[in-house]
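User: Can you predict the 3D structure for this chain?
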Amino acid sequence: MSETPSTLHTALTLAASGVPVLPLRAGKVPFGNCPDCAGNACGGRPNMKAPGPCHCPGVCHAWAAATTDSAVITSPPWLAAWDRAVCVGYHPGGAGLTVVDLDDAAAIAWARTTLPATLTVETTRGQHWIYRGAMLSRNTVRPGVDIKSLMAYARWLGNGTGAMAALPDIVRALAVKEPPAPRRAPQSLTTPLRGHGGECPHRTPTYLERGIAMAVQRITEARSAVHATVYRTFLAVLSTHGRCGCLTDTHVARLFTAAQAKGESPRHCADAWTNARTALGL
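Assistant: Here is the predicted structure, written as C-alpha cells:
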C-alpha cells in the first residue's frame, strides 16, 4: 500500500508545476504573520502602504505568501510551518486558475445545469470546479457559491476528474457587482442639477473605453519603474471609475494583461490593485 505524500512533498510537487503554495494549519486557515510583521508593522501584503514586496522571513500574509520557490518552501521558517500544517493551500490566481467553490448539493445542481463542464474536485461538503484563467475573487456570488482566484487561496484536494475548460464569461459575470442605485436628490432642491442629465458619465462607453485605453498605453510605454507605474495607473483608474460600479472584470483583465506583458507577475498585479483600492478607501 502506497504511503500518503506529506504536505511538504505535495507542496514541492505543485510548486514545480507552477502552482504557488502555502501551508494551512488546523481549520484550513493560513499561519499568522511573523513577529516582524505583527500588527502590519511592515505595511505588508495584502494591505501595503506602498507598492513593493514584503521581505518578511516567515509564512506571512495569507494568500500572498504562496510561492513556487522551492528554496523558500524548504527554508527553516516554512519547514516549521509544514510540520504543523494539516493541508496544502494554493493561490489559484497565481497559477492562472479560477476555482468555483460549490458548498452544497443545491450549488452543485445549479452548476451542472448552468456552467460548462470542467475539472472537478470533491470537497468535504461539495465540489471545486476549476477553470483555466484568472479573475477577481468574490464570495457568495449566489447561495453556496464562492469564486477563488486572484487574492484568495484554496485547499489542495487532489487532481480531480475531467478536463479543465477555459474560464467562461458566465463565471466572470458572477463576480461583477451590481452598480449602486443612484441616489435621489434631496427633496429640498428647487432647481435641477446641471451637468450630465443625472447619468453617470463613466457609463458612457466612449468615456470609459478611452480611460482604460489610456491606462493600458501608460503601462505599455513604461521604460523604468514598471511596478510603480502599474500601481499609479491602477490608482488613477480606480480614483475615476472605482466608485460608480462601471468597471468590469473585462476592464481589470485588460489592465492586468498589460502589466504582465511588462514583466509583472499575477501576484504583483493583484497586490498593486489591492493597494490602490486600500489607498482610496474602496
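The chain has nine helices and ten strands. The longest helix spans residues 205-220.
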